[in-house]
Amino acid sequence: MRKYNMAIVGATGMVGRTFLKVLEEVNLPIENYYLFSSSRSAGTKLQFMGKEYTVEELTENSFDRGIDIALFSAGGETSLKFAPIAAKKGCVVIDNSSAWRMDPEVPLVVPEINPEEIRKHKGIIANPNCSTIQAVVVLKPLHDKYVIKRIVYSTYQAVSGAGMAGYKDLENGLKGEPPKKFPHPIAGNCLPHIDAFLPNGYTKEEMKMVNETRKILGEPSLRITATTVRVPVFNGHSESINVEFEKPFDLDELRKVLENAPGVIVQDDVQNNVYPMAIYASGRDETFVGRIRRDESVESGVNLWVVADNIRKGAATNAVQIAQKLIEMWNEEQ
Ligand code: A2P
Fold first, then answer.
1. Could you tell me the distance, in angstroms and rounded to a whole number, from the CA of residue 65 to the centre of ligand 1?
2. Phi, psi angles (nearest 5°) of residue 244
3. Across 186-316, where does the E strand assignment appear?
């Protein structure tokens, strides 16, 4: 079987280091790995696959060596500039930033939901926003069965989603130090503010959830609203999701639909205090759902509590799963 070459761009970052961890856990037919960062961390030595790798500075020539796949997590600006350079050299970029997600030419992929979109790529495949991934893994099977009419998202997002700097703000904030990344202290606080504010009063993060959910579900005018909140949790995003359906549903049947959904684990036994929690979802690749109950204020609606590891399924795991599918597709074509 053919072997491939893979680059990790942003290898020293929060998601980049998790790319390495997840890659060590799966068995991809990769011959050579190349690790890149900015000039700041170039020269850093990282242990990976039982070997020591030296991180290189990312430059316009970095892809001149037959790299087949590049996992990018180095921010939007780096992706905007370097993803087209890599793609031009024949490399397929799986990009974790928001730079390309809403481009109509770029597939936005969650492998449990829309793997066939991968085939349409023109050199760049986008990994959705972390909060969107865990939501659609749960919502797609419900949409297929009951047809979603409206979604209300309220999120409780961990500091790891803001990278190393976000993580340090909570760590240092707990010792009484002032924040550097966030505009206000995060220790002992909740910030109803993730990413920049837009003219409509929403944040970019909120509009990412709205627009990306529509794109992944293939429903461009689905009614969705979102409030995204940063909470003092190190890792693992939690979401309250209120969904209204077109069709009536039976609650036990809906629970079974979720139990059978790929990548989903139902944790819902409130008599025994069982429900999903960030500290237990952290380190896992599945999305956990609980507190499943009828919304009694509408004709056909349900409330869900959805939790996942935002750095794994919300970023690194999803990207590696896309790479896995891409390689499977290439191998079928051979
Ligand atoms: P560096 O370590 O050199 O700053 P996080 O979001 O956790 O802070 O991680 C961001 C990642 O993206 C880091 O690996 C960082 O490298 C990398 N990065 C940031 N800017 C660039 C750039 N211009 N070129 C390449 N990598 C970059």
1. 21
2. -110, 135
3. 223-230, 237-245, 264-266, 287-294, 301-308
Q: How many residues does the chain have?
A: 334
Instruction: List, chain by chain if needed, residues with CB within 6 Å of any ligand 1 atom.
Output: 10-14, 16, 36-38, 40-41, 58, 74-75, 78, 163-165
Which residue in the block uniquely carries the two structure tokens 């892809």?
Answer: 63
Could you tell me the distance, in angstroms and rounded to a whole number, from the CA of residue 35 to the centre of ligand 1?
11
User: Annotated active-site positions, please?
Assistant: 130, 237
Per residue, what are the HEC states of 93-143? Answer: EEECCCCCCCCCCCCECCCCCCHHHHHHCCCEEECCCHHHHHHHHHHHHHH
User: How far away, in angstroms, is 6 Cα from ligand 1 center?
Assistant: 18
* Domain topology for 131-309: Dihydrodipicolinate Reductase; domain 2 (3.30.360)
Specify whether the CB–CB gap between 237 and 157 falls below 8 A: yes
The yes or no reply on domain 4-127+314-333 and CATH 1.10.3660.10 is no
Nearest alpha-carbon partner for 87 in 121, 111, 117, 114? 121
Q: Per-residue pLDDT tens for 124-146?
A: 999 999 999 999 999 999 999 99
Write down the number of H helices and E strands in the chain.
8, 14
**Distance, CA of 115 to chain centre:** 15
What pLDDT, on a 0 to 100 scale, did the predictor assign at position 93? 98
Domain map (residue ranges) of the chain: 4-127+314-333, 131-309
Q: CB of 119 within 8 A of CB of 144? A: no
The phi and psi torsions of 122 (rounded to 5 degrees) equal: -120, 35
Query: Rounded to whole angstroms, how far apart are CA atoms 150 and 246?
Result: 9
**pLDDT tens track for 18-38:** 999 999 999 899 999 999 999
